[in-house]
Amino acid sequence: QVQLVESGGGLVPPGGSLRLSCKAFGLAIADYAINWYHQAPGKDRNMVAEIYDTGDTNYDDSVRGRFAISRDIITNTVYLQMNSLKAEDTGVYFCNSHYGKGVGRVDYWGQGTRVTVSS
């Protein structure tokens, strides 16, 4: 059974930093792409960062240069380092992995961790 467990959220002032963690169980992160999604209040989830099985990374334009995704294969954990945080970064951050495509796609989601950027 696959389980993704996020942690590290909290309240931070604008310009501050946080590091989110996503620990995977039942899935080897070295074999799958892992994504971080951001869901702002009242809005849909939006992917902000991904790390492929190769270790290559990709970012949404809204976070490029401020956020960094990384992984520790030994602890099976993916991190999201968030710097220069803005009010619009507020929301719930979800860890995701998936396999398959189209109607055959299967997604795994964590429970989310809440980030609030406010003075």
What is the number of E strands?
11
**Hey, roughly how much beta strand do the residues contain?**
over 45%
Task: Tell the overall outline.
Answer: globular
Largest sheet: 7 strands, mixed
What sequence of helices (H) and strands (E) makes up the elements?
EEEEEEEEEEE
Q: Helical residue percent?
A: under 10%
Low-confidence stretches: none
Q: Radius of gyration in whole Å, from Cα?
A: 14 Å
How many helical stretches?
0
What is the end-to-end distance?
Answer: 40 Å
Structural class, judged by helices and strands?
A: mainly beta
Write down the overall mean pLDDT: 96
3D structure, described in words:
The protein has 119 residues and is mostly beta strands. Strands 2, 4, 5, 6, 9, 10 and 11 form a seven-stranded mixed sheet that branches. Strands 1-3-8-7 form a four-stranded antiparallel sheet, with no helix packed on it. The model has no long low-confidence stretch (mean pLDDT 96).
List keywords for this structure.
119 residues, 0% helix, mainly beta
Can you describe this structure in just a few lines?
With 119 residues, the chain is mainly beta. It is 0% helix and 52% strand. It has strands spanning 3-7, 10-12, 18-25, 34-39, 45-51, 57-59, 67-72, 77-82, 91-99, 106-109, 113-117.
Helices and strands, with pairings:
Layout: E1 3-7, E2 10-12, E3 18-25, E4 34-39, E5 45-51, E6 57-59, E7 67-72, E8 77-82, E9 91-99, E10 106-109, E11 113-117
Parallel strand pairs: 2-11
Antiparallel strand pairs: 1-3, 3-8, 4-5, 4-9, 5-6, 7-8, 9-10, 9-11
